[in-house]
Amino acid sequence: MADGMAVSLGLAVLALYMLVGTLLAVAARRAGVRSSQDYYVAGYRLGTFLAAMTYAATTYSAFMIVGLVGFAYSTGTGALGFELVYFVGTMLLLSLFAPRVWALARERRWISPAEMLGDLYGSKKLAAAVAVVYLYALVPYMSAQVKGIAEAVAGLAGSDAAYLYGVALGAAVMIAWTLVAGVWSVAVTDALQGLWMIASASLLLAWLAGWVAGSIGFDGATRLLGEKGLLGLTEFWQPSVFLGFTLPWMFFAATNPQAVQRLFMPRSPKALRGMVVWFAVFGLAYTVAVTLTGLLARSLSEAGLLAPIERRDAVTPTLLAHAPPLLSAIVFTSIVAAAVSTADSIALSVASSVVRDLYAPRARRPSERAEILLGAAVVAVLIAAASALALARIGFIVALSVLSSAILLSTAPATILAWAKPELARGRWQAALASMASGAALATAAAIAYGVKALAKPLLLGLPAPFWTLAVSTAVLLALLPLRKETQH
């Protein structure tokens, strides 16, 4: 898609999408943004459709249409297993805990996920510590979104030099849509983004399936993939690798603040149930579509009809260079949409924790306006940091995304205990703090020492860092729970 007409068409479709999205974001201001509750959790007023679409669009990002396509292309059906672990883990956590978390959020008026943990354990110190972990752990995940947009822009232009412009474009749209009306902007644009994402993924798969059917046939594609061992667990998927990649993903719904915060937002139990059901439909369909896209692309490479693609994150941009211009423009725009949605949701969630759990308890005269303005500043700083990391190109999109969740895995034991047994958690904030701090320190040290390779690198007993993060956090929590309760701190 590198000729001038195709590039112009891609930019035109993107411009149209951004215009519609901006109008929706501006219209969202009519919902009213008078308080931090309005700005960060939509005043607890999202209906079924908006709640489902914002959960889906927030969760499924550039990680999928760029990252997972490339992952499936290079590592085979093991990538599907990896992503289905996330899906099953998320559905299990939502089924078990979403109604309770929603009810407690309504009762106690939580705004940030860090505030939730601090309240459940009875400690503002714990809430502040969780906010700090969010603040640095989620920059790689946001960076993966900026990188997804930049890779798509480079593919659209047919020039790696355009990567820089892609980073700038992504940062600008992310900041603009977030600042208009906070999470109301994100929620209403997520509705557009979610529909665009699933439609474009389906169209791309249909086009690619037509290419395969008209050339090597599906039997031929299956045979070629089977000969390369791509229909089973390839050499890449060693036990330590599979464990390192899947463990952080299994607990995503309980550890990633942008996902947890969305449990606060539905306006009724009925809207919450609808959110879970429609997210399940969306998630399964989208996962299958993008995984099949990667596998079919690999079959064409094995047949010599598509040049081999060395960089995983270049698979989708390469397909766009071969697709009809209008389809390429639609998919390109969906990449921008998916990435913007997730990055904005992360930025707002982290900002809410900074404002509610670091600023407000220490401010002499905290005001709603000050909290909103500070939150906007935090959003801008986070997006700038993520853009700088994207420019460094230190890792693949999938690895960057999972790396964030690997650090956040340190919060899983304390969160699940508090959700399951709030009465047991109350007052035991020191155990929760020690649990999270020990796990986060281990995960952060591994990330500093090995970078994104920390996800799969066997450490003690041949097991990867995410396993030890979860094991240490759990062991510390269980060891310290019998200690006497402490009052609010």
Secondary structure elements and pairings:
Elements: H1 4-27, H2 36-41, H3 48-59, H4 62-75, H5 78-108, H6 113-121, H7 124-137, H8 139-157, H9 163-181, H10 183-213, H11 217-227, H12 239-250, H13 252-255, H14 257-261, H15 269-302, H16 315-322, H17 325-359, H18 368-392, H19 397-408, H20 412-420, H21 422-425, H22 429-450, H23 465-480
Descriptive report:
The protein is globular and about 70 Å long. The model has no long low-confidence stretch (mean pLDDT 86). The protein has a single domain, classed as Sodium/glucose cotransporter (Up-down Bundle), CATH 1.20.1730. The longest helix is centred in the C-terminal third of the chain and has 35 residues, at 325-359. It is mainly α. It is 77% helix and 0% strand. The termini are far apart.
CATH-level-2 architecture: Up-down Bundle
Largest sheet: none
Structural class based on helices, strands and sheet pairing: mainly alpha
Percentage of helical residues? over 70%
Shape: globular
**Helix-strand sequence:** HHHHHHHHHHHHHHHHHHHHHHH
Q: Give the integer mean of the pLDDT values.
A: 86
Name the CATH superfamily assignment.
Answer: Sodium/glucose cotransporter
> What are the segments in which pLDDT stays under 50 over at least 5 consecutive residues?
none
Strand content: under 5%
- Helices, by number, come to 23
Total number of domains? 1
CATH topology: Sodium/glucose cotransporter
The strand count comes to: 0
Q: State the end-to-end distance.
A: 58 Å
CATH class, named Mainly Alpha
Radius of gyration: 22 Å
Task: Please give a quick description of this structure.
The protein has 489 residues and is mainly α. 77% of the residues lie in helices and 0% in strands.
